[in-house]
UniProtKB/TrEMBL annotation:
It comes from the Eukaryota. This is Uncharacterized protein. One of its GO terms (molecular function) is acyltransferase activity, transferring groups other than amino-acyl groups. It comes from Tetracentron sinense (Spur-leaf). Belongs to the plant acyltransferase family. It holds the Pfam family Transferase.
Length: 469
């Protein structure tokens, strides 16, 4: 590969074209869980439309369209701020601006190989502002456009997880892209953003009542399966004689589950074709697919494969937790353009031995039940449970986590020269989380991106790919 240097040629702040009156946006507890930037890199191969476009022209187009987009998505130009009375994060919509960076490299996209497989060189394709502990100085949206030696380019975008969840990130990027190329995004439906958190907010009086209730009876938090099961995993870890005595130094909070040892994880993408998924469905339930979704089938299969690869004792409790979008679970439903975080975790537990013995369809039924349990009451209890001060958690290898991006085809984001060849997430705060993404080359296929420890990689690959061929 040619010299791997990426040279930054320009860094600018981008402000809304139409400034919004300064206002304080109250965040929900779901927004406050992970106030860090999450990164995606979009790769665009050279084409007739972009090969003759100078890097400066492309940068100018992206800057102008981002200014337009921030006029409507104005919280993205704001800054997080700590409430001095309770220490909680809120969002000050102050027109502080996003950051846009221009860069060049002599590397050709073809030299990067399979774009779906994470490469730590991708980290050079995003702008990472230095965080000194002061949220008021941290931009919530950053982007870098990098021109490759072949004429193609990458757009690396970072968005604060306190600002957007996956669906709202997708909607924001589609809105920005539509301003860039001035054409409809085909089958991608755009909605006017609704920034107020509305029914996801917890009133101060209710908060104080909840804290008092929890202090009097800590078990009230177990009404939410995700917290109940997590509590059981913590008890299991605390009584494990083989656990390192300094786990408290390695631990993390609920919102950062499993963050320890992340420097050792290797990210790997597994391509699961539509034919593989249909084959697995037939093996599970005969000719008809039993009403199983692709997510449910692959999630059940992944849970079994990962747990088997860990070689846990049969009596160990293991847990599958997966994100559920609550936009249509709330009563009344959240607006279609809701721009904040609206996901909670659903949860299923078994012993490692029982998980290995259980059939796929039995596990799928448990996943379905967990999904169904996410009701308006579950979401409300979940949000209230996050009011309780978080303790430190030990490493939880028995916890398998899945995030479903199948309905968010990020590769379809078109900045004017066609869809992306690939849209690659960078290292997430929890590298062992499995991301299910739509395969850009096959709409029915799923790309599974997961972080694995080196000693588990071979076994997981073997168990996961078994029955999929």
């Amino acid at each position: 590969m040619a010299t791997q240097t990426v040279s930054v040629t320009k860094t600018v702040s981008v402000y809304p074209k139409s400034l919004h009156p300064p206002t304080l946006l109250n965040l929900s507890n779901l927004d406050r869980q992970c106030p860090i930037l999450m990164y995606l890199v979009f790769f665009y191969n050279p084409s007739h439309g972009n090969q003759n476009l100078s890097n400066g022209s492309l940068f100018h187009i992206l800057k102008m369209s981002l200014e337009d987009t921030l006029s409507v998505w104005y919280p993205a130009a704001g800054r997080l701020t700590l409430n001095p009375s309770d220490g909680k994060l809120n969002l000050l919509c102050n027109n502080g601006g996003a950051v846009l960076v221009e860069a060049i490299t002599q590397v050709k996209i073809s030299e990067l190989g399979d774009l779906s497989q994470y490469n730590d060189w991708y980290e050079k394709l995003v702008f990472k502002p230095v965080f000194n502990g002061n949220f008021s100085e941290m931009p919530l949206v950053v982007a870098q456009v990098t021109r490759f030696g072949c004429g193609g380019y990458a757009v690396g975008v970072g968005t604060s997880h306190s600002l957007f969840d996956g669906p709202s990130t997708f909607n924001f990027l589609c809105a920005w892209a539509s301003k860039t190329n001035m054409k409809a995004h085909g089958d991608l439906e755009l909605h006017e953003p609704v920034h107020e958190r509305g029914s996801l907010l917890v009133s101060y009086g209710h908060t104080q009542h909840r804290i008092t209730e929890f202090c009097n009876n800590p078990n009230t938090v177990t009404r939410v399966a995700a917290f109940d099961h997590l509590h059981q995993l913590i008890k299991q870890a605390a009584t494990d004689q083989s656990l390192d005595s300094d786990w408290k130094l390695k631990g993390c909070k609920f919102s950062e589950i499993g963050c320890s040892n992340q420097e050792n994880y290797v990210l790997r993408t597994f391509h699961v074709s539509g034919a593989m998924i249909e084959n697995l469905k037939r093996k599970i339930s005969g000719r008809n697919n039993g009403g199983f979704s692709s997510f449910e089938v692959v999630a059940a299969h992944l849970w079994k494969a990962r747990t088997k690869a860990l070689r846990l004792r049969k009596e160990r409790m293991v847990c599958l937790q997966f994100a559920v979008d609550t936009r249509n679970k709330m009563v009344p439903p959240l607006p279609k353009g809701f721009s904040g975080n609206a996901y909670v975790l659903a949860s299923v537990t078994l012993t490692a031995g029982k998980l290995e013995e259980e059939s796929h369809d039995a596990i799928i039924e448990k996943i379905k039940e967990a999904k169904k349990s996410v009701s308006n009451d579950y979401v409300s209890a979940y949000i209230k449970a996050l009011e309780v001060p978080q303790g430190t958690l030990p490493p939880l290898m028995e916890l398998t986590m899945v995030s479903d991006w199948i309905r968010m085809p990020f590769h379809k984001v078109d900045f004017g020269h066609g869809e992306a060849t690939y849209a690659s997430p960078l290292v997430p705060p929890l590298p062992q989380v499995a991301y299910f993404m739509q395969n850009p080359n096959e709409i029915r296929g799923i790309d599974v991106r997961i972080g694995l420890l080196p000693q588990h990689h071979h076994a997981f690959s073997q168990y996961f790919l078994t029955n999929l061929q």
